[in-house]
Specification:
The complex is a heterodimer of chains A (113) and B (114).
Chain A lengths: L2 E3 L3 E5 L4 E8 L3 E9 L6 E6 L3 E5 L2 E6 L4 E6 L8 E10 L5 E5 L3 E6 L1
Parallel strand pairs in A: 2-11
Antiparallel strand pairs in A: 1-3, 3-8, 4-5, 4-9, 6-7, 7-8, 9-10, 9-11
Chain B lengths: L4 E3 L2 E4 L5 E6 L6 E8 L3 E9 L2 E5 L6 E5 L5 E5 L8 E8 L9 E2 L3 E5 L1
Parallel strand pairs in B: 2-11
Antiparallel strand pairs in B: 1-3, 3-8, 4-5, 4-9, 5-6, 7-8, 9-10, 9-11
Classes of the chains: A mainly beta (113), B mainly beta (114).
Chain lengths: 113, 114
């Protein structure tokens, strides 16, 4: 089966940098996604990694190592509005000809002044 | 353009009843996937529909079912509700696969079973 692990909670200071790690064990790996979800809201797409390496998009970057089953999301210049849950999700090939997403339980990030 | 619309937003049902939730995808999106989100289990994949066909499903009992119409709108049904079915039910729409760079989630339906 699929298994995804990420820390339950992290705290950081406004203006700092935080790294949220995600490890996974899966068969038929297709790609890895990071989503942000504020309390009471829908998850929103942050990043997608299919090849090894670092993808940078503004203050957010995501890294993937397929051989190690490891990814991280790096948030720079933290702002109070970055307080949210961050979901790591792996997309795996499925018999139905599409993909099956498996989500980690999310990392609740608390940014304090 | 309009986002993904889920109705109703909130629902309270009694054990043993059944419930139908609706999801209207973004225009042009043909893939609709459904998820259950609970504090204990996180976000779990229920099933995915594409062109009115269920392509894949997650590890949920047969009480959970769904369908998709020719206009890509989708419904999910839960029969014989149990207390443990209380959760936020999310749907996501995308062009052709459950998750993608252009996939968007709806606001969800908060189901409470009493």
């Amino acid at each position: 089966g699929q298994n995804i692990d990420q820390p339950t909670e992290m705290t950081a200071t406004e203006g700092a940098i935080v790294q949220i790690n995600c490890t996974y064990q899966t068969s038929g790996f297709n790609g890895l996604f990071w989503y942000q979800q504020h309390a009471g809201e829908a998850p929103t797409f942050l990043s997608y990694n299919v090849l090894d390496g670092l993808e940078e998009k503004g203050r957010f970057s995501s890294f993937l190592s397929r051989s190690k089953g490891y990814s991280y999301l790096l948030l720079k210049e933290l702002q109070m509005k970055d307080s949210a849950s961050y979901l790591c999700a792996v997309s795996s090939h499925a018999s139905g000809g599409s993909y099956i997403p498996t989500f980690g339980r999310g990392t609740s990030l608390i940014v304090h002044p | 353009k309009a986002g993904v619309t889920q109705t109703p937003r909130y629902l309270i049902k009694t054990r043993g009843q059944q419930v139908t939730l609706s999801c209207s995808p973004i225009s042009g999106h043909r893939s609709v996937s459904w998820y259950q989100q609970t504090p204990g289990q996180g976000l779990q994949f229920l099933f995915e529909y594409f062109s009115e066909t269920q392509r894949n499903k997650g590890n949920f009992p047969g009480r959970f079912s769904g369908r998709q119409f020719s206009n890509s709108r989708s419904e999910m049904n839960v029969s014989t509700l149990e207390l443990g079915d209380s959760a936020l039910y999310l749907c996501a729409s995308s062009l052709d696969v459950p998750l993608g760079t252009e996939a968007f989630f709806g606001q969800g339906t908060r189901l409470t079973v009493v």
